[in-house]
Amino acid sequence: MKDVAILGYGPVGALLANLLGQAGLTVAVYERETAIHPLPRAVHFDGEVMRIFQSAGLADHIALATRPSSQGMHFVNAAGQTLIVRRGIDGPGPQGWPNNWYFHQPMLEQVLREGVNRFPHVEVHLGREITDVSELDARYIVGCDGARSLVRRAIGSRQHDLGLHQPWLVVDLLCDPSSRRVKALPDYTVQLCDPARPMTIVNVGGARRRWEIMLMRGDDPDRLTEPDVFWPMIARWLRPQDARLERAAIYTFHSLVQEGWRNGNLLLAGDACHQTPPFLGQGMCAGMRDVANLAWKLKAVLRDGAPDSLLDTYESERRPHVEAFIELAVKLGAILQETDPAKAAERDRRFAAGAEMFDFPQPQLGLGCRADAPPPVGTIFPQPVLPDGRLMDKAIGPRFAVVGETELLAGRRPDAVMLPGVGVDWLAQRRLRAALLRPDRYIAEVA
Ligand SMILES: Cc1cc2nc3c(=O)[nH]c(=O)nc-3n(C[C@H](O)[C@H](O)[C@H](O)COP(=O)(O)OP(=O)(O)OC[C@H]3O[C@@H](n4cnc5c(N)ncnc54)[C@H](O)[C@@H]3O)c2cc1C
Which of 150, 368, 409, 412 could in theory staple to 316 by disulfide, Cβ–Cβ 3.0 to 4.6 A? Predict the structure, then answer.
């Protein structure tokens, strides 16, 4: 019997397979499709997710297939007034990596799948549809099986609807780099808050640009990508001679969170247990955080004698965290998707004094495997560079660690990696002297 069966080989299942493979667990992955999903979906992940890829030993490979960016995301109205900005960050951010990365999802998934090939104890079964979880023979079964999850049905999770459901057309264009209009496109992400037709424009990297276009009343969804309908919608930026339409799909963006991510040996991760509208570029990121939380707990239970109840802390920690992101995406969606001209004008007046700035939230995990204390307990610890030039996580490895004041840590008998002198400035700013970090680098406890 395998330690873990993973149902679904999308990005979340593929990252989990890497993390469990690295932990030495025996794994079988089952995926209905024989090839990577071809339609346009995620284009952005954040610095924390790059740090998770680092922990899977894949950061260098992923960096080659993606585009780091110091630019932010600008919510702009039809007249060009900037309403809101999600800040960009120059250079490495607190996670030790640039804070924003842009990519072509099939390429990212390819790198993750190549990573799995490192582990002979991880078997991958492509072209294998599972119709009943009883077909899977493993100590634990993780449903990374997406929005229509079979494992979720077997668990009987309860759905919480956060209220946003809206169809959008999503198009990837391959642009001519010599075109004057292509050169003039902004490098930052644009959220065009035009009540006549809200849109999102993203520089994916290379020649590829993403247009996400909200469907309006009266649209014929079957005709939206026909040249005489499509090009006029983006005429303020490009003309037909500037780019070629690579692929297109219509999605209804949802905001949903499931309650019940575990029942016995069945667990859920990724879109199977939450879906967000993509206005923050955080849906897949949340799934990656799920499996970073789950993987070390599965290893602790299956190999290191931790009680099975440790796995109950997975949902209690992760659900409030992902809800914070989805609630913000819904709030931003309400600003972006306003189609009533009078209400849009009223909205724009609220920002007349200047654009509002924000950063990605850094929510606290719910209660679980951490002290019951205010933040920074339960939030992610930054990743400093050590005096020898290594990133901190490299020095720790997949273990617990204690960081903090040298005098406080001196002479302690280590049950975890001790890193005296690391993170002291960050801790001192918060009037703290040391912190206990979990293998996923969330703070378990402080002194
Ligand atoms: C337009 C759009 C833009 C987005 N932009 C972003 C973004 O910028 N950043 C971001 O972080 N996220 C973004 N997202 C969200 C992101 O794409 C998803 O969250 C992510 O793909 C979910 O990954 P997953 O592995 O959980 O599920 P999926 O990718 O859906 O994978 C599930 C897999 O399970 C397989 N499967 C299901 N049932 C079975 C079965 N019974 N037997 C065998 N196999 C099965 C499926 O074939 C599939 O391969 C965007 C989404 C959309 C639609």
Answer: 368
Copy the structure tokens of residue 178.
Answer: 């010599």
CATH superfamily for domain 2-67+101-161+255-327: FAD/NAD(P)-binding domain (3.50.50.60)
61 Cα: distance to centroid of ligand 1 (angstroms) = 21
Residue 157 to residue 273: CA distance in whole angstroms: 8
* Cα 354 from Cα 349, distance rounded (Å): 10
- Helix (H) or strand (E) holding 19, with range, is helix 11-22
Q: What is the DSSP string of 32-91?
A: S-SS---S----EEEHHHHHHHHHTT-HHHHHHTSEEE---EEEEETTS-EEEEEPP-SS
**Strand ranges for 325-446 from DSSP E:** 356-358, 401-404, 417-420, 434-437, 443-446
pLDDT value of residue 121: 98
Residue intervals of the chain classified under CATH 3.50.50.60 are: 2-67+101-161+255-327
Indicate yes or no: pTM above 0.85: yes
For tokens 């509208």, name the residue: 277
CA-proximal residue: ligand 1, atom 37 (nearest): 145
Report, as ranges of residue numbers, the positions in the chain whose pLDDT lies below 50.
none
Pocket test for ligand 1, best of 112, 284, 318, 326 (most atoms within 8 A of CB): 284
Q: Report the separation in Å between the CA atom of 37 and the middle of ligand 1, taken as the mean of its atom positions.
A: 9
Q: Give the model's pLDDT for residue 413.
A: 75
Atom of ligand 1 nearest to the CA of 8: 34
Hey, how many other C-beta atoms are within 10 angstroms of the C-beta on 229? 14
Task: Express as a percent the part of the chain with pLDDT over 90.
Answer: 96
CA-43 nearest atom, ligand 1: 8
CA-based angle 301:59:386, to the nearest 5?
Answer: 85
List all residues whose CB is within 6 A of at least one atom of ligand 1. 7-13, 30-33, 37, 41-45, 129-130, 144-146, 150, 170, 251, 270-271, 278, 281-285, 287
Tracing tokens 């724009």 back to the chain, one arrives at 348
Give 270 Cα–ligand 1 centroid separation in angstroms.
8
